[in-house]
């Protein structure tokens, strides 16, 4: 709703009231319409101020209403009536003015903002466009190039930038509503000609066609199949080329194509999923709202390889003092050079400064005696990690949290090496650790609620999306990835090429297909793990070469490593590169011959494999493993898995994440395809649909937000 009152004698003050962000729900819209009518009809009122309660102007349309039957007054005429008013209307912006919130402010005659406010039109990130006149008013106000940038990226701008762009008339450090009321009094009776943005023309540009061609190329390149950015460009083009009324028609038409699209549903689901992962819980009953995080002021990182350096930078950027430990002198020296330059680059990107003396370096573990939290990031070797944890348990304060950055090893086993296993958790970062958004927080059997809460909160402080997951081999993300990689290898054995598999996945929306990705991260990493697991044995011949522990196995990755092909770092992998460290993947005839010979040696007759099979084989097994993970309680809900995949593995956000994708495709279909593939490949057991997946289908395939009920019912019967 909206509250209306008269202040300072002649100013009608309208306050939007819909906590926490004053989203424009039906009742808020009704409240605005009624209040504006009252203010305009009241002789005593000479000007109007619109603000939001609790220091937030407005977070835009109420996204929760989108999936439902819309009711209440529509936004477009409501904003039109405000702009057409014959009394000055001033927007007093605090906190955020986003989406419909900024569009409402653009309908006002003046915009005054607090210096700390953020403004933007982020609709594109929800699969939409600013359809309450935003695509038509903003270019008229700030020019086409700047509007294109804001609308197609959805980025939030500071009040200072908004002032510079011309979105705002005034920025204040004081009480914004008071300033706006005074301002409203000062403009009482002044002409409003020249204050109604819809009457403006876009500033003329000499080469409009090439500007839009370029913009279109740019968004198509970045969008990876997302349709909203393209529609945003089309809408702004309408603003630049059509009269306002026709532009509004075009905006409406384009919005109609987006509004009910699968992509909009996926992106809006993901908006809420992202927030849901913060409300974590564990099977032992620890929860986000009942667990108290510990303060962490000083942290340590053990091991300054690539991951350790990134973690050191992430901690320093979060404002912590960091003790960075590396026992190898040469590696320590390299880290001392690399970390400051990584910090400097980060500071340039983020516009921050970090005190260089917030990091101290040491060659011995003794240096971490007084820290609140340690993150171990040594080589992925259990014996080495055991030793580090034993040492830490002696050196550190008794209440220091001990975290491991292992990507797959047993957190419970590491905890058992310490005196306080309840203070041990996994903090699984993704490379580069100071850039990637995802953090898997892995709780063990004995991790205390406070330990989990502290790691989750520290992740947030570092700007990460922290997802709590249980302890199992590979945790959630890598465990699912293993299935995906294996299927990709099998497809090569059956006749596909890396190019074909990668193209299918890239057209689906991944930034890189599985083989280009493997070349980038290094084929030797997985090889080392497979060797440690006793899988990578290329001395085996005949049928046994392609079977391990009774299941199908492909030694292709191992064979490539034996040829010294580790990916980009050696200039050869699934593709060839112009030099070691080269970035541009080129098709490699050697690899194709190698595949032909391999198939001939194993009596495999190559067949034609289409993109659909690639997608189903690679993605459905990954999804199936996701259901297994939910069934086992390793992840609490589908949102956790989706956040992990979007933030850590390049799953296209406009497809919502693997579990949402399964819901979109239809669970029956996923089951039917998995069963078909399992029939064709009976020695791949994980092609069998998981118990939870089958149960969901048996329960009538409820929508994704109801899956937790089915999972809970099952767990309560156990
Ligand atoms: C044909 C039809 C025509 C329609 C015309 C459409 C016009 C328009 O162009 C479309 C839009 O405006 S699209 C909208 C464009 N606007 C945007 O995209 C802005 C989206 N919002 C944001 O970016 C952030 O929430 C803020 C920066 C506002 C606050 O950040 P913060 O302080 O870190 O807080 P937080 O943790 O993020 O959120 C707190 C709680 O509020 C919830 N919630 C938030 N916004 C909501 C909304 N609009 N709605 C509902 N709920 C919303 C959020 O889920 C969370 O709930 P929970 O139950 O506690 O989890």
From TrEMBL:
<dbReference type="InterPro" id="IPR036291">
    <property type="entry name" value="NAD(P)-bd_dom_sf"/>
</dbReference>
<keyword id="KW-0413">Isomerase</keyword>
<dbReference type="InterPro" id="IPR006108">
    <property type="entry name" value="3HC_DH_C"/>
</dbReference>
<feature type="domain" description="3-hydroxyacyl-CoA dehydrogenase NAD binding">
    <location>
        <begin position="298"/>
        <end position="471"/>
    </location>
</feature>
<protein>
    <recommendedName>
        <fullName>Peroxisomal bifunctional enzyme</fullName>
        <ecNumber>1.1.1.35</ecNumber>
        <ecNumber>4.2.1.17</ecNumber>
        <ecNumber>5.3.3.8</ecNumber>
    </recommendedName>
</protein>
<dbReference type="InterPro" id="IPR018376">
    <property type="entry name" value="Enoyl-CoA_hyd/isom_CS"/>
</dbReference>
<dbReference type="Pfam" id="PF02737">
    <property type="entry name" value="3HCDH_N"/>
</dbReference>
<feature type="domain" description="3-hydroxyacyl-CoA dehydrogenase C-terminal">
    <location>
        <begin position="614"/>
        <end position="701"/>
    </location>
</feature>
<dbReference type="InterPro" id="IPR008927">
    <property type="entry name" value="6-PGluconate_DH-like_C_sf"/>
</dbReference>
<dbReference type="Pfam" id="PF00378">
    <property type="entry name" value="ECH_1"/>
</dbReference>
<feature type="domain" description="3-hydroxyacyl-CoA dehydrogenase C-terminal">
    <location>
        <begin position="474"/>
        <end position="577"/>
    </location>
</feature>
<comment type="similarity">
    <text>In the C-terminal section; belongs to the 3-hydroxyacyl-CoA dehydrogenase family.</text>
</comment>
<keyword id="KW-0456">Lyase</keyword>
<dbReference type="InterPro" id="IPR006176">
    <property type="entry name" value="3-OHacyl-CoA_DH_NAD-bd"/>
</dbReference>
<dbReference type="InterPro" id="IPR029045">
    <property type="entry name" value="ClpP/crotonase-like_dom_sf"/>
</dbReference>
<comment type="subunit">
    <text>Monomer.</text>
</comment>
<comment type="similarity">
    <text>Belongs to the enoyl-CoA hydratase/isomerase family.</text>
</comment>
<dbReference type="GO" id="GO:0004165">
    <property type="term" value="F:delta(3)-delta(2)-enoyl-CoA isomerase activity"/>
</dbReference>
<comment type="pathway">
    <text>Lipid metabolism; fatty acid beta-oxidation.</text>
</comment>
<keyword id="KW-0560">Oxidoreductase</keyword>
<dbReference type="GO" id="GO:0006635">
    <property type="term" value="P:fatty acid beta-oxidation"/>
</dbReference>
<dbReference type="Pfam" id="PF00725">
    <property type="entry name" value="3HCDH"/>
</dbReference>
<keyword id="KW-0443">Lipid metabolism</keyword>
<dbReference type="InterPro" id="IPR001753">
    <property type="entry name" value="Enoyl-CoA_hydra/iso"/>
</dbReference>
<dbReference type="GO" id="GO:0070403">
    <property type="term" value="F:NAD+ binding"/>
</dbReference>
<keyword id="KW-0576">Peroxisome</keyword>
<dbReference type="GO" id="GO:0003857">
    <property type="term" value="F:(3S)-3-hydroxyacyl-CoA dehydrogenase (NAD+) activity"/>
</dbReference>
<keyword id="KW-0520">NAD</keyword>
<dbReference type="GO" id="GO:0004300">
    <property type="term" value="F:enoyl-CoA hydratase activity"/>
</dbReference>
<keyword id="KW-0276">Fatty acid metabolism</keyword>
<dbReference type="GO" id="GO:0005777">
    <property type="term" value="C:peroxisome"/>
</dbReference>
<keyword id="KW-0511">Multifunctional enzyme</keyword>
């Amino acid at each position: 709703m909206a509250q209306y009152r008269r202040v300072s004698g002649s100013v009608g003050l309208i306050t939007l009231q819909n906590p926490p962000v004053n989203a424009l729900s039906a009742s808020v819209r009704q409240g605005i319409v009624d209040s504006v009518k009252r203010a305009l009809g009241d002789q005593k009122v000479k000007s109007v101020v619109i603000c939001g309660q609790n220091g937030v102007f407005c977070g835009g349309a109420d996204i929760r209403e989108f999936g439902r039957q819309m009711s209440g007054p529509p936004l477009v005429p409501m904003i039109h009536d405000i702009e057409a008013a014959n009394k000055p209307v001033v927007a007093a912006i605090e906190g955020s003015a986003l989406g419909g919130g900024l569009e409402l402010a653009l309908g006002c005659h003046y915009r005054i903002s607090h210096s700390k406010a953020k403004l933007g039109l982020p609709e594109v990130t929800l699969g939409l466009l600013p359809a309450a006149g935003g695509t038509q008013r903003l270019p008229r106000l700030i020019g086409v190039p700047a509007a294109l940038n804001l609308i197609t990226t959805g980025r939030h701008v500071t009040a200072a930038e908004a002032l510079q762009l011309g979105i705002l008339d005034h920025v204040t450090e004081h009480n914004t509503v008071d300033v706006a009321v005074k301002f409203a009094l000062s403009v009482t009776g002044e002409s409003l000609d020249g204050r109604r943005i819809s009457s403006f023309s876009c500033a003329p540009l000499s080469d409009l066609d090439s500007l839009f061609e370029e913009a279109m190329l740019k968004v198509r390149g970045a969008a990876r199949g997302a349709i909203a950015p393209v529609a945003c460009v089309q809408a702004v083009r309408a603003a630049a080329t059509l009269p306002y009324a026709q532009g509004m028609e075009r905006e409406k038409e384009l919005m109609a194509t987006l509004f009910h699209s699968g992509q909009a549903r996926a992106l809006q689901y993901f908006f809420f999923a992202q927030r849901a992962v913060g409300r974590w819980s564990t099977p032992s009953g620890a929860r986000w709202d009942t667990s108290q995080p510990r303060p962490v002021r000083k942290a340590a990182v053990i091991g300054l390889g690539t991951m350790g350096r990134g973690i050191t930078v992430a901690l320093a950027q979060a404002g912590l003092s960091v003790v960075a430990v590396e026992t190898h002198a040469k590696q320590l020296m390299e880290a001392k050079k690399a970390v400051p330059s990584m910090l400097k680059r980060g500071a340039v990107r983020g516009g921050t400064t970090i005190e260089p003396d917030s990091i101290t370096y040491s060659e011995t573990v003794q240096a971490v005696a007084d820290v609140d939290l340690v993150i171990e990031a040594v080589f992925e070797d259990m014996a080495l990690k055991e030793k580090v944890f034993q040492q830490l348990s002696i050196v550190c304060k008794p209440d220091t949290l001990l975290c491991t950055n292992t990507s797959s090893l047993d957190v419970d086993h590491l905890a058992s090496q310490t005196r306080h296993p309840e203070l041990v958790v996994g903090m699984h970062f993704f490379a580069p650790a100071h850039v990637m958004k995802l953090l898997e927080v892995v709780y063990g059997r004995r991790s205390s609620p406070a330990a989990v809460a502290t790691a989750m909160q520290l992740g947030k402080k570092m700007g990460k999306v922290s997802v709590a997951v249980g302890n199992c081999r590979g945790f959630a993300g890598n465990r699912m990835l293993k299935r995906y990689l294996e299927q990709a290898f099998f497809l090569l054995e059956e006749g596909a090429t890396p190019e074909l598999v990668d193209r299918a996945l890239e057209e689906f929306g991944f930034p890189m297909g599985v083989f280009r990705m493997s070349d980038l991260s290094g084929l030797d990493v997985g090889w080392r793990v497979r060797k440690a697991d006793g899988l990578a044995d290329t001395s085996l011949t005949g049928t046994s070469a392609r079977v391990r522990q009774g299941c199908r196995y492909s030694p292709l990755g191992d064979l490539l490593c034996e040829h010294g092909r580790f990916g980009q770092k050696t200039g050869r992998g699934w593709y060839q590169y112009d030099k070691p460290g080269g970035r541009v993947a080129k098709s490699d005839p050697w690899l194709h011959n190698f595949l032909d010979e391999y198939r001939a040696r194993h009596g495999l007759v190559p067949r034609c494999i289409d993109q659909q099979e690639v997608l189903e084989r690679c993605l459905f097994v990954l999804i199936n493993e996701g259901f297994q993970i939910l069934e086992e309680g390793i992840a609490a809900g589908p949102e956790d898995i989706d956040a992990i995949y979007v933030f850590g593995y390049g799953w296209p956000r406009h497809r919502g994440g693997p579990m949402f994708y399964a819901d979109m495709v239809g669970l029956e279909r996923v089951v039917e395809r998995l069963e078909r593939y399992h029939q064709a490949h009976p020695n791949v057991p994980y092609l069998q649909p998981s118990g939870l997946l089958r149960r969901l289908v048996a329960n009538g395939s409820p929508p994704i937000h109801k899956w937790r009920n089915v999972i809970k019912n099952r767990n309560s019967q156990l």
